[in-house]
Amino acid sequence: xxxxxxxxxxxxxxxxxxxxxQVRYKSDDGRLLEVxxxxxxxxxxxVTALREVFDMRLFSxxxxxxxxxxxxxxxxxxxxxxxxxVTLFEGTTPIYSMPVCAAYAGMKELFVKHxxxxxxGSFKDNGMTTAVTMAKKLGAHLVACASTGNTSAxxxxxxxxxxxxxxxxxxxxxxxxxxLSQALxxxxxxxxxxxxxxxxxxxxxxxxxQGNIYLLNSINPFRxxxxxxxxxxxxxxxxxxxxxxxxxxxGNLGNCSSFGKAFDELLASGFIDRVPRIAVIQAEGAxxxxxxxxxxxxxxxxxxxxxxxxxxxxxxxxxxxKAWHAVDVSRGVVEQVTEEEIAIAKSRIGADGVGAEPASAxxxxxxKKLVEKGVIRPDEKxxxxxxxxxxxxxxxxxxxxxxxxxxxxxxxxxxxxxxxIDTRGFANTPVRLPADVKTILEYIDKxx
Length: 448
What we know:
- The chain is an alpha/beta fold and 448 residues long.
- It has a domain at 95-121 and 221-401: Rossmann fold (3-Layer(aba) Sandwich).
- The chain has helices at residues 44-57, 63-66, 99-105, 124-137, 150-161, 177-185, 197-211, 221-237, 254-268, 288-295, 320-329, 339-351, 358-372, 394-401, 437-447; strands at residues 6-9, 17-18, 33-36, 95-97, 111-114, 142-146, 165-171, 189-193, 214-215, 245-249, 277-283, 333-337, 382-386.
- The strands form 3 sheets. Strands 4-5-13-10-11-12 form a 6-stranded mixed beta sheet, with helices on both faces. It has a 4-stranded parallel beta sheet with strand order 8-7-6-9, with helices on both faces. A 3-stranded antiparallel beta sheet has the order 2-1-3.
- The longest helix has 17 residues, at 221-237.
């Protein structure tokens, strides 16, 4: 008889297990938990048959088939039966060919999978559908998270769909209004606290523990279950031909961790025979995983995070150990990029007609740097994960193109806060002209 799904530790020995219906996020010895899915070892015939099922579901009207997460529910056994799923038809996000970005990065071709085209505009929806579904199964009525913006928007939306109340903890002055407006509109109780994301993450854990509130940050193992389907869908879209590289931004490191888990399960079950290499890209000012990778010391040394890419402005990532496992299982690498490199890469993404928030642009910037270092070959196939939509942080984009982009959005008087980010001639500066046809046509002619 097949072993049942359970929660278990994902690093160190011994492996500790817990039942799915026990509300916990860490083991008794403090390690993060993951969902163990007792997948069978598929025969080639079974793999072919299941791939055909996935194909047929693309054309189904069933809500669980239309979702780019629940479509792959054979890899989500912990949520059986699938009769009470909370979904906004998340996933099914496109892959774009990016010729401008490819030329900028020095590659023959470059692709992006745009998770910003999810219902609330970020990859968080892939994990929130599974996490809120489990919250509902467990009978939770109140859910909470700490957030730099995207998590709060997603949690508030899915909680509203599930008729739950949500509580958001945000670092004061460190959240883009495009994201804050979503949490407010979806009805979340929104609390600004003094300090950064890491401080918010610390207090939300205490509040949830003492207030019997279900926590929905990526410390929650059911979030990772949904996010792993991003890679299953990617492989499906590529007709099950794995790319050479998957490039992902590194913040709290839940996405990287989930990708590693997806590849683990797909490989162990015989569903794929080759794993893409994962490249995790961090902002230079929020780079604890990069520092660990560069030094070879696998101990997390938190940093004081400073970057305008607010979605990854995290100095003490909770999924650090899981991320290391993902890097190991994929023979991956970790790189860092500067604020200027992020800003310019973001403008190159826009030049391809695709819009993304700053954190997403670390991927294209990272590809360029890794090609220059000879880690990625120009002829290899790389897919960059764009994690959030352009309109998540429109102020950043306008400031860049007006050549008024600073490390601190408030331009506060501090050593780093007044540092201007160099646009290096890539700014598309708006102009003011008189309402005169001849003058306007002359200007347009010069800009052709």
